[in-house]
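Researcher: I'd like a structural prediction for the single chain below. Treat it as a standalone chain; there are no partners to consider.
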Amino acid sequence: MVSVTVTEQINASPQAVWNVLTDVDLWPTWTQSVRTVRRLDDEPFALGSRIRIKQPGMPTMVWEVSELVPLSVFTWHTGTPGVKTVGVHRIEPGPGDGTTVTLEVHHSGPLSGVIGALTSSRTRRYMHMEAAGLKKASEERPSS
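Model: Treating it as a single chain, here is the predicted structure.
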């Protein structure tokens, strides 16, 4: 298995961070690591939701939510022949009234080593973009 993890401290409540994080339709407005997002269902974001995402320099992928614990974590997965990719988005109360966000990407399967070698640098860069964008958007948006 090949994994990349990025952690960010955000000066916003877990509720504010969760609201931004799970409003996946708006990701392209706050992170340059995502060009387009298209929900493949009309239901609220939940377990089983499917989302088509296009990232710069990467093929379009369909992600399916496989775990969702409100105000705590959502996990989704996608795959190509020989590789399963899992993305984890975890939030926890942080210092003061803030929030700690941990983003993880895990590649597994017979081609995971090759994919990891080819994409780890870009994946890490995109995850840092996502964490920084999430921080900015969460700190600017009311928690409502």
